[in-house]
């Protein structure tokens, strides 16, 4: 019978034969004929000869495994992190390279300053359109002068730096001055408050998803963050959202995580501490268990891509949603239950290298956000746990102000509220101070 032949590239034949020799088996004289009908780069290889080479390599590999099994932690036994039924993982030889560049020390210092004990973040980064809606609620027109007056009211509060470590600004405010001519950024610095800046360009529909959104703004981000740094900003915010009623789809989760990771890497490269914020919306009638499951999935994806983009964890801050039932769920959870589920999720997903976790209020009422955060601070945590609130700190102040200059004196009352931190005596105008005092864990009277 004529033996079966295979036409293979000559380089493949040489590789196979040399591999068998390299494994330690002796050379053998095998006839390899190269018929003139084949090109010079091809060799007619007998079926038996190819089979013999494969066997030789297999035998040599088996001998290698046997000789080294007793000394290797990866052969003949499971590695310490191998799951039952899974394939063994090879030991990692790749060293992660963190590229925060020349700003590394400054980023760590900034993050620690914002995550300092007893303080949190005041978020006033609403776009002009959103700020206009808030002004309209008290009968004011959406003009630059009115926006300036409102933001000045907040940022010049006496004693604000005692409880506020950072303030997220909209671009207009970063370049704005008070009516006295002092830069808003300088008002913050005088009270040891770190200025921050919103850098995303908003949400748009995500094609191919289940009516979900993605956050735009990566184009030109490097030049913008460099400019914001020169204007005095030292941290940045990028908000994307995940909707539980819409799935969330794998596409939406990956897009949110990847966008946050790219933004974080670019921000660190230009000296800004990135706040990582994948907000899980409260919309829906889902249970708190469902929220926990989705939150764990989202944060796992986020930290995977943060690592892939060489983001320095010591130079970031997180702004997560609290783990709560959906807003339309029939049963409301207590602050203690929300604290339990939220901290469980964070301990499963967030490395202790992260300096601070600054919760968003996410549509909760002022008291809900305050009491939930208070419950989380009743025991030690691996990270500084505080707030990054907007509406939960602003709403009552806005109503008390009403756009009238004579009502500016109301801000003088807030310092007294901070020391009292007594929710049972809380009046509408006191929420700004009460919220800060309780949220950071001050004892209730």
From TrEMBL:
Its EC number is 4.1.2.13. Gene3D superfamilies: Aldolase class I. Pathway: Carbohydrate degradation; glycolysis; D-glyceraldehyde 3-phosphate and glycerone phosphate from D-glucose: step 4/4. It catalyses: beta-D-fructose 1,6-bisphosphate = D-glyceraldehyde 3-phosphate + dihydroxyacetone phosphate. The keyword DNA-binding does not apply. It is an enzyme of class 4 (lyase). GO terms for molecular function: fructose-bisphosphate aldolase activity. Coiled coil: none annotated. Keywords: Glycolysis, Lyase, Schiff base. Transmembrane segments: none annotated. InterPro entries: Aldolase_I_AS, Aldolase_TIM, FBA_I. GO terms for biological process: glycolytic process. The keyword DNA damage does not apply. Belongs to the class I fructose-bisphosphate aldolase family. This is Fructose-bisphosphate aldolase. It comes from Lactuca virosa.
């Amino acid at each position: 019978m004529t033996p079966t032949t295979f036409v293979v590239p000559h380089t493949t034949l040489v590789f196979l034969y040399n591999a068998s020799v390299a494994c330690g088996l002796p050379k053998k004289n095998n006839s390899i004929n190269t018929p003139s009908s084949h090109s010079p780069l091809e060799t007619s290889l007998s079926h038996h000869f190819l089979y013999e080479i494969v066997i030789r390599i297999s035998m040599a590999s088996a001998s290698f495994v046997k000789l080294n099994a007793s000394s290797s932690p990866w052969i003949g036994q499971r590695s310490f992190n191998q799951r039952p039924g899974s394939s063994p993982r090879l030991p990692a030889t790749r060293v992660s390279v963190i590229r925060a560049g020349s700003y590394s020390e400054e980023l760590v210092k900034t993050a620690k300053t914002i995550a300092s004990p007893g303080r949190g973040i005041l978020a006033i980064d609403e776009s002009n359109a959103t700020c206009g809606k808030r002004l309209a609620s008290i009968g004011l027109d959406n003009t630059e002068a009115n926006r300036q007056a409102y933001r000045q009211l907040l940022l010049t509060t006496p004693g604000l730096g005692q409880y506020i470590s950072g303030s997220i600004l909209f671009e207009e405010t970063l370049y704005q001055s008070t009516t006295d001519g002092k830069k808003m950024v300088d008002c913050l610095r005088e009270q040891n408050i770190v200025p921050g800046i919103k850098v995303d360009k908003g949400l748009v529909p995500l094609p191919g998803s289940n009516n979900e959104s993605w956050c735009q703004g990566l184009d030109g981000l490097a030049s913008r963050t460099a400019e914001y740094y020169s204007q005095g900003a030292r941290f940045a915010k990028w908000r994307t959202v995940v909707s539980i009623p819409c799935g969330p789809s794998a596409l939406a989760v990956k897009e949110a995580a990847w966008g946050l990771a790219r933004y974080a890497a670019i921000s660190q490269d230009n000296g800004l501490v990135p706040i990582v914020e994948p907000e899980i919306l409260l919309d829906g009638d889902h249970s708190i268990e469902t929220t926990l499951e989705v939150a764990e999935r989202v944060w796992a994806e986020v930290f995977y891509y943060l690592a892939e983009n060489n983001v320095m964890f010591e130079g970031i801050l997180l702004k997560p949603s609290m783990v709560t039932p959906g807003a339309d769920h029939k049963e409301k959870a207590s602050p203690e239950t929300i604290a339990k589920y939220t901290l469980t999720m964070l301990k499963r997903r967030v490395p202790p290298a992260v300096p601070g976790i600054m919760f968003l209020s996410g549509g909760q009422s002022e008291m809900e956000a305050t009491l939930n955060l208070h419950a989380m601070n009743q025991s030690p945590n691996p990270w500084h746990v505080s707030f990054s609130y907007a509406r939960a700190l602003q709403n009552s102040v806005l109503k008390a102000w009403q756009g009238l200059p004579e009502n500016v004196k109301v801000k003088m009352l807030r310092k007294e509220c901070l020391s009292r931190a007594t929710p049972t005596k809380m009046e509408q105008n006191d929420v700004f101070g009460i919220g800060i005092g309780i949220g950071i864990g001050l004892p209730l009277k």
